[in-house]
Amino acid sequence: MITIDGSYGEGGGQILRTAIALSSLTGKPVEVVNIRAKRPNPGLQPQHLTGVKAAALLTNAEVVGAERGSTRLVYRPGVVKCGQYTIDVGTAGSVSLVIQTLAPLLIYAPCPTKVTIVGGTDVSWSPPVDYMRFVFVPVLRKFGVDMEITLLKRGHYPKGGGRVVVETRPVERLKAVEAPEFGRLARVGGISHCVNLPQHVAERQARAAREALGLPAEIEIERGEGLGPGSGVVLWAISDLDNVVGGDALGERGKPAEAVGREAAEELLAVLKSGASLDPHMADMAVLYMALADGVSRMSTPEVTSHLETNVHVVKKFLPTDIKLSQHGGRWVMEVRGVGFRR
């Protein structure tokens, strides 16, 4: 059994998500201790529990310690299954973080799989669902992943109630990706949304984002109804080399709509200035797929975050991969020798 210290590095839920995903794929049992020990509310929270239980459902896993507040978890997976499932986080816990846990399992499942997830689509401390749709999925497609994420309804903190559908088709193995730099900017897109708020909130967010970008940008305005109010902006840039990077910001009480738009734009501009092929949020997620791929992948990021360092640590616990990080100008190149994992 592999034992992982959940307080390593940034000490958050990402350690658990990666460990559960790789345990499920490799069939190696895992024990995670000191779960989220560095957080103000240590231990498992609803979105972490949902990810664990969902992975267990897809693998017939035996699980010990899957309860709220638990700081130790033992996970013994069976074989990855496929089919149709509905998973309810039960709160405004992040749908995106559940997707992070399940995505590696789903793409290696033996048949097409459809998972409906109910929870928070746009919540603090996690990627918004539009980031997952328009950055995460396109990056995974470069590895040969066949996945679609469909947003049916948004859910904000504290009531949640969002609904998202994830559909995947099996791959035999992932291909390596050679993308050490972003390339030339081809297009900027985005979505500015508001729920249970006047449409001008989304319009002001979009206007501020365009002004801060100083670039032509196709930003869709979306207004909807949900269990509670909320707003946000997700922007993405696509290069002539088909690389995609993103930036996002979430509205909150007392935060002007203009500040939300500027924040998302400034985040995206910082990535574009670096010339990196991945934004910092995607870099720590991508290293897992680079390690599973067949061959050597090279991708880059503006910075080596604690999340990235932590994910590298966990990936190496499960896979005999070689991961090198080297600085080139304003970006860090990640060179990963994948293990050619097969379904």
Your description of this structure?
The structure is a single chain. The protein is α/β, with parallel strands linked by helices and 343 residues long. Helix 2 runs parallel beside helix 3 (95-107) and helix 5 runs parallel beside helix 6. Helices cover 33% and strands 29% of the residues. Strands 1-2-4-3 form a four-stranded mixed sheet, covered by helices on one side. A four-stranded mixed sheet has the order 5-6-8-7, covered by helices on one side. It starts with a strand and ends in a 6-residue tail after the last strand. The model has no long low-confidence stretch (mean pLDDT 95). It folds into three domains: 1-81, 2-Layer Sandwich (Translation Initiation Factor IF3), CATH 3.30.110; 83-171, RNA 3'-terminal phosphate cyclase domain (UDP-n-acetylglucosamine1-carboxyvinyl-transferase, Chain, Alpha-beta prism), CATH 3.65.10.20; 183-274, 2-Layer Sandwich (Dihydrodipicolinate Reductase, domain 2). It has helices spanning 13-26, 46-59, 95-107, 129-142, 199-213, 257-274, 280-292, 306-318, and strands spanning 2-5, 30-33, 62-64, 73-76, 84-88, 113-119, 146-153, 162-169, 178-179, 185-195, 218-224, 230-239, 244-250, 296-301, 322-328, 331-337. The protein is built from eight helices and 16 strands.
